[in-house]
C-alpha cells in the first residue's frame, strides 16, 4: 500500500467512526451505545478509537460539529458571499438546512438531545452554545442585511429568530416520530416554510 493511500485511509478514519456512532445512536440511543460497539461497527480496534477521541462524549461533540455545525457555518458563509435578493438567499439557506439536517441521518443527533438531553446536560449545553447560538446569529445577520437593503421589514429583528428555526425542528421531530404513520412531504413543507416566512418578512 502506498503512503498516499495510507494517509487517505487515516484521514478518513474519524469520519468513519462518526458514521458508525451515528448508526449506533440511531439503533440504541446514546447512553446504551458503548465505545466497543462503535468500534465494532466501524471495524476498528477499540484502542484505535482512542487515537481520535478521548471518550464517547468527545465523539458526539465532534459529530455535532461536523454534521450540524458545519451546515450552519456553510449557511453563514453563503449569506456573506452571495449577492442575491433576500428572498432568494433565504430560500437557499433554508433548503440547504432542511436537506442536510432533516433529510439525512443527522436527524439522529437531534433524537439524542430530545430523548437523553436531561441525562447528559453537558451535551445540551454544548449544542446550545456552539450550534444553536451560531444559527441564531446567522439568521439575525441575514435579516439585518435584508433590512439594510430595504427588502425586509424594519421591525423584523424585534421578534425572536427562533421562530424562523421552529419549523425545521418540527420537521425533524416528525421524521423521528411519525414518519411510519404519515410521511412528511418535505418539498411541500420546505416551500411552505420559505413562502410564509418571506411573505411575513418582506416589505410590502
Automatic annotation (TrEMBL):
<feature type="domain" description="HTH tetR-type">
    <location>
        <begin position="11"/>
        <end position="71"/>
    </location>
</feature>
<dbReference type="InterPro" id="IPR011075">
    <property type="entry name" value="TetR_C"/>
</dbReference>
<dbReference type="GO" id="GO:0000976">
    <property type="term" value="F:transcription cis-regulatory region binding"/>
</dbReference>
<protein>
    <submittedName>
        <fullName>TetR family transcriptional regulator</fullName>
    </submittedName>
</protein>
<dbReference type="InterPro" id="IPR009057">
    <property type="entry name" value="Homeodomain-like_sf"/>
</dbReference>
<dbReference type="Pfam" id="PF00440">
    <property type="entry name" value="TetR_N"/>
</dbReference>
<dbReference type="GO" id="GO:0003700">
    <property type="term" value="F:DNA-binding transcription factor activity"/>
</dbReference>
<dbReference type="InterPro" id="IPR001647">
    <property type="entry name" value="HTH_TetR"/>
</dbReference>
<dbReference type="InterPro" id="IPR050109">
    <property type="entry name" value="HTH-type_TetR-like_transc_reg"/>
</dbReference>
<keyword id="KW-0804">Transcription</keyword>
<dbReference type="Pfam" id="PF16859">
    <property type="entry name" value="TetR_C_11"/>
</dbReference>
<keyword id="KW-0805">Transcription regulation</keyword>
<feature type="DNA-binding region" description="H-T-H motif">
    <location>
        <begin position="34"/>
        <end position="53"/>
    </location>
</feature>
<keyword id="KW-0238">DNA-binding</keyword>
<dbReference type="InterPro" id="IPR036271">
    <property type="entry name" value="Tet_transcr_reg_TetR-rel_C_sf"/>
</dbReference>
Amino acid at each position: 500500500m502506498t503512503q498516499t493511500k495510507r494517509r487517505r485511509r487515516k484521514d478518513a478514519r474519524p469520519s468513519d467512526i462518526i458514521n458508525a456512532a451515528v448508526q449506533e445512536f440511531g439503533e440504541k440511543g446514546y447512553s446504551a451505545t458503548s465505545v466497543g460497539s462503535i468500534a465494532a461497527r466501524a471495524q476498528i480496534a477499540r484502542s484505535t478509537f482512542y487515537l481520535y477521541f478521548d471518550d464517547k462524549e468527545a465523539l458526539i461533540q465532534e459529530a455535532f460539529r461536523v454534521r450540524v455545525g458545519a451546515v450552519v457555518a456553510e449557511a453563514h458563509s453563503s449569506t456573506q458571499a452571495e449577492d442575491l435578493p433576500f428572498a432568494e438567499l433565504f430560500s437557499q439557506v433554508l433548503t440547504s438546512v432542511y436537506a442536510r439536517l432533516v433529510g439525512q441521518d443527522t436527524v439522529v443527533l437531534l433524537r439524542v438531545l430530545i430523548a437523553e438531553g436531561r441525562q447528559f446536560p453537558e451535551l445540551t449545553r454544548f449544542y446550545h452554545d456552539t450550534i444553536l447560538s451560531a444559527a441564531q446569529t446567522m439568521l439575525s445577520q441575514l435579516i439585518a442585511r435584508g433590512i439594510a437593503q430595504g427588502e425586509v421589514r424594519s421591525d423584523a429583528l424585534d421578534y425572536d429568530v427562533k421562530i424562523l428555526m421552529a419549523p425545521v425542528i418540527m420537521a425533524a421531530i416528525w421524521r423521528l416520530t411519525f414518519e411510519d404513520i404519515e410521511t412528511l412531504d418535505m418539498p411541500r413543507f420546505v416551500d411552505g416554510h420559505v413562502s410564509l416566512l418571506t411573505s411575513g418578512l418582506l416589505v410590502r
